Amino acid sequence: MDQLRALRYFIKVAETGSFTKAASMFSVPPSSLSRRVADLEKSLGATLLKRSTRVVKLTEVGRIYYNDVQNILNQLELSNETVRSYQTTPKGRLRISSMVGFGERILMPLLDAFSEQYPDIVLDVSLSDELSMLGRDEVDIAIRGGYAPNERVLAKKLMDNRFIPVAAPAYLAKHGVPQNAIELRKHDGLYFRTPSGPTPWLCKIDGQWHDVTGRTVAVSNNGQWLIKKACQGQGILMSTRWALASYIQTGELQELTFEHELGINQHTDMAVYLLYQKQRYLVPKVKVAVDFLLASMKN
Amino acid sequence: MDQLRALRYFIKVAETGSFTKAASMFSVPPSSLSRRVADLEKSLGATLLKRSTRVVKLTEVGRIYYNDVQNILNQLELSNETVRSYQTTPKGRLRISSMVGFGERILMPLLDAFSEQYPDIVLDVSLSDELSMLGRDEVDIAIRGGYAPNERVLAKKLMDNRFIPVAAPAYLAKHGVPQNAIELRKHDGLYFRTPSGPTPWLCKIDGQWHDVTGRTVAVSNNGQWLIKKACQGQGILMSTRWALASYIQTGELQELTFEHELGINQHTDMAVYLLYQKQRYLVPKVKVAVDFLLASMKN
DNA sequence: TACATTATTGTCTAAATAACAATAGTGTTT
DNA sequence: AAACACTATTGTTATTTAGACAATAATGTA
């Protein structure tokens, strides 16, 4: 029995919920799938799929097996690709996942240059603040705000990701410049919403964190919109230096500095990390992309 | 092409370094392996093995692929076993790996009772202080002194593993009872050697760790031998409470207590952990063993 | 240089899988 | 309630793929 073929059939049937649909994807008659899956079940001594003529769905063991096998088949495909692309020129589809703001402001401009340099690499970029599963093999490279990756994943620090407070000169003229962090509580605020909720303003005084969140003017997960509002003088915004740099330079926004450390969570060592699977660095397209991005970020 | 078969052939050839030897293990002619491996190489577009009539060895890519594939095949075998044994009575070979001292004094006596309760489980116990690769699938259950496992591995605390200082009454009568940790430096010591080297005596005073190692009388990785020496009054020994309990109870050894915290490394929260892969808990033999050991340790 | 061993290749046989047609079962619709 | 449409399965044949066996070429050793 060709177990691997049986597994591929099983996976597709489980996903489509139909032998016929799955069969059409392999361009073989449904009877083949039926027989192969039956073989597989026989060899395992368990029924993986509960069938009726109308619906096919996974049994309890079936679901367990499906999860395992899907993962295993993905790994195998990765390994095959590694070998196939070994010592060839960088080419193929490169899947990159990035945080939205960072992707728009920093990553994508860089990728334009990257594409020119490596025209044979087809970029597949998805921006999302949800953390995608790097291990589950949906992306080749991920860019995320500081969190600890697992052992198989390498994390390279790209740049600082601490949040700094800014406001428009007009706002400060009208409401006054806060002299210390505690005073922020009396100010108008524009707040980021991360996947885990809106971000407060926090201040560390003598080792203790205090909430210094002000009045809420607006909340959004869209940095650009918040920055626009901040420029219009609608309130104080905390965002990252890389997002604000150009506005601070032109004077549209002004950085506020305080004696005590300010942040949006208690991890003060926030950074933007480039993540990739150690093994995948062997694949030329991944290698050149990692190298390119790391080199670019040094400027 | 039956890729899975080809992979199994490839693996065996790589391991034995010979098509003929590998073929005999599958009870097929060498020509079959030669053809299958050739197919595999063709489909990958890379040569995996460097052959001559006399020696067969892996190429650079071959080695990478071999490592990946071996791991993948192991995982698949585990998944198959999970399904096959799903909701059956506990049986089969159960591979347990444990630290030597703990295995001898605590684990093995328990396993005798376990074997009576589950006669269909064949125990395969190996004692070693080196950390075996749980992920690499050589054992079902591992018992280790406190270290952080990865995400897929569950770690259940079995018991405290802090090191406490003891000495024979005769030793204390002759050399005096040390009144504080610093005085240990003037005493004779019996020291454990772990895989990472001999263990010093450390003492935490006002948040700072100080080395209070005394004169070296003997060093060994064998706890029993060190305990014997301690009982003979040859010096002060730091070992775990579970190893020393019976000797303290009989009065052969006497626990020394100090104002400041004492240890053999800077991790004061040392414990003995039971480790197993999350998924494998579905396999009855693993489940009952984990449950049995955890229940037993509560006494 | 002769020898023994080994991987490979050619050819035939056996096994496994796909193809195709037909059947039986099930949920939906009128 | 009955006809309908769709689907999984099964029987049978054709095709593909792997194994068996003998022969060949290559290579390290004696």
TrEMBL record, chains A, B:
<protein>
    <submittedName>
        <fullName>LysR family transcriptional regulator</fullName>
    </submittedName>
</protein>
<keyword id="KW-0238">DNA-binding</keyword>
<dbReference type="Pfam" id="PF03466">
    <property type="entry name" value="LysR_substrate"/>
</dbReference>
<keyword id="KW-0804">Transcription</keyword>
<feature type="domain" description="HTH lysR-type">
    <location>
        <begin position="1"/>
        <end position="59"/>
    </location>
</feature>
<dbReference type="InterPro" id="IPR036388">
    <property type="entry name" value="WH-like_DNA-bd_sf"/>
</dbReference>
<keyword id="KW-0805">Transcription regulation</keyword>
<dbReference type="GO" id="GO:0003677">
    <property type="term" value="F:DNA binding"/>
</dbReference>
<dbReference type="Pfam" id="PF00126">
    <property type="entry name" value="HTH_1"/>
</dbReference>
<dbReference type="GO" id="GO:0003700">
    <property type="term" value="F:DNA-binding transcription factor activity"/>
</dbReference>
<dbReference type="InterPro" id="IPR036390">
    <property type="entry name" value="WH_DNA-bd_sf"/>
</dbReference>
<dbReference type="InterPro" id="IPR000847">
    <property type="entry name" value="LysR_HTH_N"/>
</dbReference>
<dbReference type="InterPro" id="IPR005119">
    <property type="entry name" value="LysR_subst-bd"/>
</dbReference>
<comment type="similarity">
    <text>Belongs to the LysR transcriptional regulatory family.</text>
</comment>
<dbReference type="InterPro" id="IPR058163">
    <property type="entry name" value="LysR-type_TF_proteobact-type"/>
</dbReference>
